[in-house]
Design a protein that fits this description.
The chain has five helices and eight strands, in the order E-H-E-E-H-E-H-E-E-E-H-E-H. The protein has helices at about 25-40, 95-100, 115-125, 155-165, 175-180, and strands spanning about 1-10, 45-50, 80-85, 105-110, 130-140, 145, 150, 170. The protein is globular and about 45 Å long.
């Protein structure tokens, strides 16, 4: 089973403080460990970046927020796919590229867990990929519901991981993933 690492939206906007307190300020540290392993073993790596042409967006392509977080910045020869919606599969060549490379298993890390990470995982599973989520290489931020009730970043992270567990992904720590490769 050929495995690829998919790093989702490790972008500067998530480190500017405007999203609130993160459930995991070490997500990119853990993702960097996975990235190092995949680079050293010349395994497929895909970097996903959220892209917007709207100047008021946090992901505006000309803003600092669009830039990759240094610790997991793509090398010149690594594949970078930009997306404009939550799923890395919609409106992109991601599925075709993975199939062309005979990839059947995805190791996913990224920001944020309840949004683009979760959406991409659900679609990947629906498309027939086997998915493993590096739970300590992801993070969430506080959210409120339709009644204004606030949920902490950790509550959001825990709920999202629970909703993905087993049905859509195998949830493991970075170390568990590295030990299994």
């Amino acid at each position: 089973m050929k495995t690829a690492l998919v790093l989702i939206d490790f972008q500067q906007t998530f480190r500017d403080g405007s999203w609130g307190s993160s459930s995991n300020d070490q997500a990119e540290v853990q993702a960097a460990k996975l990235l190092k392993h995949f680079r050293q073993n010349q395994l497929p790596i895909v970097h996903i970046q959220h892209w917007s042409q709207h100047p008021d967006s946090r992901f505006y392509f000309k803003s600092n927020g669009f830039s990759a977080i240094d610790m997991v910045k793509p090398l010149e020869d690594e594949l970078v796919i930009t997306k404009t919606v939550n799923s890395a599969f919609i409106g992109t060549s991601l599925e075709a590229i993975l199939r062309e490379q005979s990839v059947s298993r995805l190791i996913i890390a990224g920001l944020t867990t309840p949004h683009c990470v979760s959406t991409t995982i659900r679609m990947a599973t629906n498309l027939g990929f086997s998915v493993t989520l590096a739970e300590d290489a992801t993070a969430s931020f506080p959210l409120h519901d339709h009644n204004g009730r606030m949920f902490s970043a950790q509550e959001i992270q825990d709920f999202t991981l629970a909703s993905l567990n087993e049905e859509f992904a195998t949830i493991l720590s970075t170390q568990q993933i590295l030990d299994s490769l």
